[in-house]
Design goal:
25 helices, 756 residues, alpha/beta, binds adenosine-5'-diphosphate-glucose, ten-stranded mixed sheet
Length: 756
């Protein structure tokens, strides 16, 4: 039986029962009140009649007594009157009361015997009657009794009528209450349940998750179902991908495959990551504390790895609500739903951050490693801060790995060159890798750093030193060869220094294509998407290009703009028809060079726009704020071309994100030959970003390329990005590190008894 039928029956029974109870008590009360009224009325009549009858009974004036009773026989509902002497003998009676003439009523006998007024209801052959018996007195006591009978049948008929009305009332009430309740249930319960059922049905059929969630009382349930649904769809996507893999016999890495691989390689050992930037910041917002993911290639790369193996990530706490959200050990589980790994925050003072991050790392090492013609600045106090902060992170990490034997540690980037040696000093059993996300220059370029030896010694504490491409590995090995006493083992790309071996390997970082593909293209025509996107940005154009960067002098943004200017100069037919959307988030703005660069980028865009713009069109739309990946994806999907014109770049993830987003196999990539990505994506249109003419030609080629060629190029690039994805990067790095034999067990703490 369905829930609503069962609910209806239960409701009908309970409402009817309650209403019947109420009706019963109301009817009874009214009947009682009618009986009391009749009693009062007959007493009043009896008392006045008794005063007149008493002398007549005492004197034995029976005729007058008879006349008296007959006079009252038609009074209201009087059924009859009778008078008795002291022995109970009938003296006078109204006609029609023959029944009581034969048998003295009980009430009369009691009144005679006790001298009290008696009342009672009784049944007679003529119907129900009420009797009042009043004693009459002479000087010696009770001389007789006057009895008055009233017809009580109207009480019964009125009670029956009351019952009839009450029953109709009960029925009507029951119907109304049940109907209202069922309607309310239908609106508040059944509809959301049907909605949810439809939702789950869609899910079962493999449709995308609907965004509208049932609200109100059902919200918690809807929340849980959403979680379940997204896990299910992830599992479904993974299963589909596995099936595709088996079908195509490819060896593509997925998050699930990585998870299994890491589990198997680590065999219960935990994985730890260290980076300067944290994957989640807690920030104060109007609605409370919000969790935000900062824009960074590093976070894009490392997040799926930590998620897949429930590791610990040690990073600097930079959000204004970060301290409020950690526990007493500065740890917080992330992300919010569902938490999958631990974030351990390290706190830096302003001075430490200025010297370590803005100073040595970003004014020293960053320009030192990027050949982009910005001079590195080396200050002794920045170097001091760099060492101290590396020590601080090393202590936090040593704290985290303390319970683990032979832990696996992935150190990230140029902020922590000294960390590998600091960890190894304390924990020679730890297996440590450092991944250098930026280029490594040639030995002459690196040699200008006053502390190159210390940096190299710190790095060589690692068991594995990773770079994006082989050229960076070669530069590193040559630098070590020039600067340090060590043996370079070229045949296996390793450095042997004082018996400790550091393997130097290329691991090309990438993106996770599954996210990009599933989120990329909303159903619909691309050109319509593009028109509405551009309309929202206040321009009308047929062709569109896109660039996504932090505002950094290595990314070649002004150079790119000058390329666009040259293109519009050389190809005037594209004026009014081609718009370039540049997403550019300000970065490291406390450094003067970066601060000035924002103005330089804005001024360049403004200058070029002023030169060519019309009422509804301008060549460059500059969006200088941080965008989410969800905001960037539609731009990637709608663009005819993407420009990555870095003057020098370790890899560049934007190039790969653009390719991953283009599941329509459209769009052309213009790529700097000085970006690491150019080694992997030879099907991009390769450019020298310093060559404005070459940039202009590349834009024209991208727009005028035959559709077939564009599709072929994109198809090949997509195959590369799909195959060499972020999971493969992590698997290769972790696989290489796990193959390293731990050097020795952790130093045993001395037994205090022994010390004594
Ligand atoms: P980055 O120099 O930060 O990374 P990149 O590889 O391009 O450069 O990664 C940038 C990431 O941030 C991308 O995921 C991109 O989508 C995002 N991003 C950039 N600008 C954005 C904006 N305005 N709004 C929102 N998101 C934005 C460093 C090295 C690179 C290397 C990566 C990873 O410099 O060479 O590829 O690390 O190792």
């Amino acid at each position: 039986m369905r829930l609503t039928s069962r609910l209806s029956i239960a409701l009908i029974l309970s409402v009817a029962l309650v209403s019947m109870g109420i009706a019963y008590y109301q009817t009874r009360a009214q009947t009682e009140s009618m009986r009391r009224d009749l009693e009062r009325q007959s007493l009043m009549l009896g008392e006045s009649l008794a005063r007149a009858a008493e002398p007549l009974v005492v004197d034995g004036s029976n005729d007058r007594l008879q006349r008296l009773v007959e006079r009252f026989k038609d009074h209201e509902s009087v059924a009859g009157i009778a008078a008795y002497d002291g022995a109970g003998k009938l003296l006078a009676v109204t006609p029609g009361l023959a029944a009581i003439a034969n048998r003295t009523p009980k009430a009369v006998n009691e009144a005679l015997r006790n001298g009290w007024v008696r009342t009672a209801f009784l049944e007679s052959p003529a119907g129900p009657r009420h009797i009042v018996a009043l004693p009459l007195y002479d000087d010696d006591g009770v001389a007789g009794v006057l009895a008055i009978l009233h017809d009580a049948s109207y009480i019964e008929s009125r009670t029956a009528a009351l019952w009839r009305r009450a029953l109709v009332g009960v029925a009507v009430q029951t119907v109304i209450i049940v109907a209202i309740t069922l309607l309310a249930v239908r609106l508040s319960v059944r509809r959301p349940i049907l909605h949810m059922a439809q939702w789950l049905r869609d899910l079962r059929a493999g449709k995308a998750l609907p965004s509208a969630k049932p609200a109100g009382e059902f919200e918690p349930l809807a929340h849980e179902v959403t979680q379940l649904a997204s896990s299910l769809s992830e599992a479904r996507a993974a299963a589909q991908q596995e099936a595709r893999l088996r079908y195509s016999a490819e060896s593509t890495w997925t998050m699930d495959r990585l998870r299994l691989f890491v589990e198997e390689r680590l065999g219960g050992t935990r994985l730890f990551a260290v980076s300067n930037r944290e994957p989640y910041e807690h920030r104060r917002a109007s609605g409370g504390i919000q969790m935000v993911t900062p824009a960074s290639g590093l976070v894009t790369a490392l997040e799926p790895v930590l998620r897949s193996c429930d590791g610990t990530w040690v990073a600097q706490g930079t959000g204004d609500a970060d301290r409020e959200t950690v526990d007493e050990f500065d740890r917080v589980r992330v992300p919010a739903e569902p938490p999958q790994y631990t974030l351990r925050r390290v706190w830096l003072s302003r001075e430490e951050e200025r010297g370590f991050y803005y100073g040595f790392a970003n004014e020293g090492i960053w320009p030192l490693c990027h050949i982009a013609h910005t001079r590195p600045i080396f200050r002794a106090e920045d170097w001091q801060a760099y060492r101290e902060v590396n020590r601080k992170f090393a202590e936090a990490l040593l704290d985290e790995i303390a319970p683990d034997a032979s832990p696996v540690v992935l150190v990230q980037d140029y902020h922590f060159a000294l960390l590998p040696a600091m960890i190894k000093e304390q924990r020679p059993d730890a297996r440590v890798a450092i991944f250098w996300h930026i280029p490594w220059p040639n030995p002459e370029a690196f040699g200008i750093c006053p502390w190159q030896r210390e940096l190299l010694e710190g790095l060589l504490g690692a068991d594995v030193a990773g770079f994006h491409i082989q050229a960076h590995c070669n530069n590193f090995l040559e630098t070590v060869d020039r600067a340090l006493e060590s043996r370079i083992e070229w045949e296996r790309f390793a450095v042997n220094r004082a018996g400790h071996l550091t393997l130097v390997r290329p691991f090309a970082i990438s993106v996770s294509t599954d996210c990009a593909e599933s989120a990329a293209r909303p159903a619909g025509l691309p050109h319509l998407e593009r028109a509405s996107l551009l309309a929202r940005l206040g321009v009308r154009a047929t062709y569109m290009g896109v660039g996504v960067d932090r505002i950094d002098y290595t990314k070649g943004i002004p150079e790119r703009f000058r390329g666009i200017e040259a293109f519009l100069e050389n190809c005037p037919s594209y004026r009014g028809r081609f718009t370039f959307v540049q997403v550019a988030s300000p970065s490291r703005t406390l450094i003067a060079r970066y601060h000035d660069l924002i103005h330089e980028v804005e001024n360049e865009a403004e200058r070029i726009n002023r030169r060519f713009q019309t009422a509804n069109w301008r060549p460059i739309v500059l969006l200088t704020r941080q965008h989410s990946h969800q905001e960037i994806l539609p731009l990637y999907c709608a663009a005819d071309l993407c420009m990555v014109t870095s003057l020098h770049d370790g890899m560049n993830l934007v190039a790969k994100e653009f390719v991953a987003a283009r599941d329509d196999e459209q769009g052309a990539l213009i790529l700097s030959r000085f970006a690491g990505a150019s080694y992997e994506l030879p099907d991009a249109l390769m450019v020298n970003p310093y060559d404005t003419g070459e940039l202009a030609n590349a834009i024209r080629r991208a727009l005028e390329m035959p559709a077939r060629e564009r599709t072929e190029r994109m198809r090949r690039m997509r195959a590369v990005v799909r195959e060499r994805n972020i999971y493969r990067w992590a698997a290769n790095l972790i696989g290489e590190l796990c193959a390293v034999r731990p050097q020795s067990e952790p130093p045993l703490l001395q037994d205090p008894a022994e010390v004594a």
